[in-house]
């Protein structure tokens, strides 16, 4: 039996990387693999444990067919290694830190994927983005407006489960594991 592809999406600052890091040991106990993204940003950049490559190297990898999924966002290139197909075929669940903007293409390639939207209260998200210090307040306000619009469009989709990460991370981890174990929606 093939594994399930769980496509985790959410706005920047929603805590996807923190959730994956906190859940990693317990996901491994369940045989769930977490795909390590390849990103065209320096390996020293703060954030997820991605493989940082140059844009030129990324282009070579993409041309060689190294990625099951690839997209552009925020001036960067992102790739999910093709090994996820092997993991899925071997019966492992695979959790991917995906892109909301690439969801349609991912559904096309993996029609049975399960979409998990990590949501955060807008006030909490604003505070997190301000604390990161990567963007101006105007940029953050624009990002929050886009996020609200995008989130609203996804919350009505039947195949999208919502996972709120506005509170304590340990609680979000438990709800993620419940979702994977039971295969049920985690809508709140």
Tell me about this structure.
The structure is a single chain. The longest helix is centred in the C-terminal third of the chain and has 19 residues, at 137-155. The chain is α/β, with parallel strands linked by helices. The protein has seven helices and nine strands, in the order βαβββαββαβαβααβα. The chain is globular, with a radius of gyration of 16 Å. The relative contact order is 0.20. The protein has a domain at 5-35 and 91-182: 3-Layer(aba) Sandwich (Rossmann fold), CATH 3.40.50. Residues 184-188 have low confidence and may be disordered. The chain has helices spanning 16-29, 55-63, 83-89, 103-109, 122-132, 137-155, 169-182; strands at residues 5-9, 32-34, 38-39, 51-52, 67-73, 76-81, 93-97, 114-119, 160-164. α5 (122-132) runs antiparallel to α6 (137-155). The strands form two sheets. It has a five-stranded parallel beta sheet, sandwiched between helices. Strands 4-3-6-5 form a four-stranded mixed beta sheet.
What attributes does this structure have?
alpha/beta, single chain, Rossmann fold, 188 residues, disordered C terminus, 5-stranded parallel sheet, 4-stranded mixed sheet, 7 helices
The Rg value, from CA coordinates, equals 16 Å
Let me know the average pLDDT: 87
Largest sheet: 5 strands, parallel
Instruction: Specify the CATH architecture of the domain at 5-35 and 91-182.
Output: 3-Layer(aba) Sandwich
**Any idea what the CATH superfamily of the domain at 5-35 and 91-182 is called?**
P-loop containing nucleotide triphosphate hydrolases
Q: Separation of termini?
A: 30 Å
In sequence order, what are the helices and strands, one letter per element? EHEEEHEEHEHEHHEH
CATH topology descriptor of the domain at 5-35 and 91-182: Rossmann fold
Helix content: 40-55%
Name the strands of the widest sheet in spatial order: 2-7-1-8-9
Q: What is the top-level CATH class of the domain at 5-35 and 91-182? A: Alpha Beta
Low-confidence stretches: 184-188
Strands, count: 9
As a percent range, the share of strand residues is 15-25%
Count every helix, treating DSSP H or I runs of 4 or more residues as helices.
7
Protein structure class? alpha/beta
C-alpha geometry: globular
